[in-house]
Amino acid sequence: MTKKQPCKWTVVEKARNVHELRLLKPLKNGEEAWVLWMSDEHWDHPKCKLDLLKEHHNEAAERGAAIIKAGDTFCAMQGKGDPRGDKESVRAEHWGGNYLDLLVKTAADWYAPWKENIKVIGLGNHETSVYKHHETCLIERLCQSLRDKGGETRKGGYSGWVRMMMARGAQTCSYRAFYHHGSGGGGPVTKGLIDFNRMAEYVDADALISGHVHWKNTTPVERISLNDASVIHRGEMQYVRCGTYKDEFEDGNAGFHIEKGRGPRPLGGWWLRLSFKNDKLRADWSEAK
Questions:
Q1: pTM of this prediction exceeds 0.90
Q2: Longest Cα pair distance anywhere in the chain, in angstroms?
Q3: E strands along 24-158, which residues?
Q4: pLDDT for res 1
């Protein structure tokens, strides 16, 4: 039996923080298109779970999935004058007077096998802190390096839009996701869900994606509207909080995370599976873990 080829995407930059993902062929019955949403990899930190990160990237490649990163791809806290600096938080390959250059080069080499899948990388507070203090954008440089290697990765904003577009015959459907890296501390009771309620006051989207606080959850919210024909339309907005790939808790022995009384945080991102059922676009979210 011939193995079914996965549906693949290309990316088009419409504005500095607005990107369209377009399927390279129409989506037929029984076919699926995948997007992997992730955040807070903190790739360069010794406590990043690189094996899990590699596993998820490999799964994305097998599925032909687009990968969207919503900030804090880097940890990048060991630059000159950074008060958060800690010698134990530097991997051996990043020791050097050109610390930031080493981060970009080694990250580009590590992510290169998935250069065709990584479509958009947004900014997180760790990257904006580097830009503020060192006047260089790690994400812009990483995206350029991946493009130099043959990819088409584009830099997103701290917040922005990704519109996933697919054709079905003469019809074009889309799924609109608004991402915002996140803010605040994400309390242990609300687990950051209140942030989505605030965003929903000013954003009209099919999904709201965030990270930052290292919690992980997804919550569907039903919404109604009235169209021009006075017909009530019922739709769903999905709240999606991506987890982290940095395990600061480990065994709970010691460290900043432990001293603050914080427990283990959920790891991984989220899979978005797009398909058609009865000529209607379906969007199904499942955990990448």
A1: yes
A2: 65
A3: 33-38, 66-69, 118-121, 154-155
A4: 42
